[in-house]
Amino acid sequence: MLSSWQDGCIKLYITHKALKTRRSYSELFQKGEYLPLGASGGKSRYICAFLRNYRQDHALVAVPRFFTKLSEAGVMPIGERVWKDDCILLPESAFKNWLNILTGNTVQTNADGRALSIATVFNSLPVALLISYPKQTCSK
Predict the structure, then answer these.
(1) Residue 68 has pLDDT above 70, yes or no
(2) What is the third-level CATH fold of 2-132?
(3) I want to staple 118 with a disulfide (CB 3.0 to 4.6 A). Which of 21, 39, 83, 129 is the partner?
(4) Does the pLDDT of residue 10 top 60, yes or no?
């Protein structure tokens, strides 16, 4: 989808997955606390991220800002080439294991459980919708 992003299919796919997730986690998105997240690293000002949490559910949304400053025209700002060792900073209450609803990839926090690698979060798509899950299962 990234190779033909101009046709709008990727936008439709992301919208579909986000609405489906919102329906599956309705209480999280209706009643959950909103928490803006910070980032660390050389490109930290180019990331916008927030966390929603309600009871044992957490959702994290992350998107890059100012694409033209991150990579050359027509090249998506994904992976380590762009984000190097930059991280999204998490609160202590956040889970350590995440499922990217848009890509199906799993993402784990760093060793102390307080950050997610942006290069890993954006390893194949420059937008992320992550849902937390306990280490023992990935059923959500």
Answers:
(1) yes
(2) Immunoglobulin-like (2.60.40)
(3) 83
(4) yes
Q: Which of 33, 85, 78 shows the shortest CA–CA distance to 58?
A: 33
CA 35 vs CA 4, 46, 117: distances in Å: 34, 18, 18
Q: What is the pTM (predicted TM-score) of this model?
A: 0.86
Under 8 Å between Cβ of 132 and 106:
no
CA geometry: angle at 39 spanning 34 and 44, to 5°? 130
**Domain spans, the chain:** 2-132
Contact residues for 66 (Cβ-Cβ < 8 A; gap 6+): 46
Give CA–CA dist 76/31, Å, rounded: 34
β strands within the chain, DSSP E:
33-37, 39-40, 47-54, 57-64, 87-89, 97-100, 106-108, 115-117, 128-132
